[in-house]
Amino acid sequence: MSNWREEYRKSLKSADTEEHIDLAFYRPVGFVWAKIAARLGVSPNAITIASIFLGVAAGVLFFYPELWVNVVGMLLLVWANSFDSADGQLARMTRQYSRIGRILDGLSGDFWFAAIYIAIVLRENRDIPFFSAHTYVMWLMAIAAGICHARQAAMADYYRQFHLYFLKGEEGSELDNAAQLKAQLDSTDAGFWRRLTMRVYLGYTMRQEACSPAMQRLRKELRLRFPDGKIPPGFRDDFRRLSLPLMKYTNILTFNWRTIGLFISLFIGLPWLYFVYELTLLNAIAVYMVVRHERICRNLTARLENGEYKGDNI
């Protein structure tokens, strides 16, 4: 059991960035799936693909007005997310890291929620007279919510990876740079599908960087002052201390709190309220998170420029 506990601990990202519901449920369940997959020789990417089918099936079931059918869909979505947890845990346990795996992992949630959004739109346009007479309203709400969802999740993931970079170093983070990704894309002779996934991921990273100018300035300043990557321990500690309170907001913008809002809207029979939840509360949290993080980055950049960490590189 002590070996299992140690293996489980190593399968987690970090205590700083793990969400409470994940630690209470999804990580333990995902660890069991990961152990079974490792025994059977199943790859992390295969688990991710299985989660896509489960999540899309869940979305289809949300089209029907019967609550018991929706509950089956909820259970499938929970199952899909346990697989989404398992693929990352398996990759960390077996060191089967790959950028394709990271891209596929990100796309899996997009497939789930695309199916969910389409199901809700079709259901509400069929069942609610106002939306039946003005079908474009639901489609506009869904598209707006989907765009906001993508931005919220992308920035939450970006800030977690930046936090992990200072906490665990480059090995423990999946923080990327658009310029480096573009150089890799231009120099590769990979096939069509690999180049396509690389282009998609490049666009994803460029959008993250465009939304965080102060963070990009801080990263540039760090590269100029510490080209060997040996960032002073004092700076790492200061960044972690300032960034840690924002991790709760990044966690709210991930799967668990989204699905709580989704499940509540399904239980009360008003799925369209989930779009309102996305467009109001979650957007407000995302804006607050970005503003706070940018302020932290501006503050630390100024301290670097003033030479505060000049003699701290030990």
Short description:
The chain is mainly α and 314 residues long. It has helices at residues 2-10, 20-40, 44-61, 67-94, 99-127, 129-133, 135-168, 178-187, 192-210, 213-225, 233-243, 247-252, 255-267, 273-305.
Gyration radius, to the nearest Å?
21 Å
**Helix/strand/pairing class, anyone?**
mainly alpha
Q: Distance N terminus to C terminus?
A: 38 Å
Q: What string gives the helices and strands in order?
A: HHHHHHHHHHHHHH
Count up the helices.
14
Q: Beta-sheet strand percentage?
A: under 5%
- The helicity comes to over 70%
* Quaternary structure of the protein: single chain
Main sheet attributes: strand count, strand direction, barrel closure: none
Q: What's the SSE blueprint?
A:
Blueprint: H1 2-10, H2 20-40, H3 44-61, H4 67-94, H5 99-127, H6 129-133, H7 135-168, H8 178-187, H9 192-210, H10 213-225, H11 233-243, H12 247-252, H13 255-267, H14 273-305
Description of the molecule:
The structure is a single chain. The chain has 14 helices and no strands. The chain is mainly alpha-helical and 314 residues long. Helix 2 (20-40) packs across helix 4 and helix 13 packs antiparallel against helix 14. The relative contact order is 0.11. The model has no long low-confidence stretch (mean pLDDT 90).
Summarize this structure as a short list of keywords or feature phrases.
314 residues, mainly alpha, globular, single chain
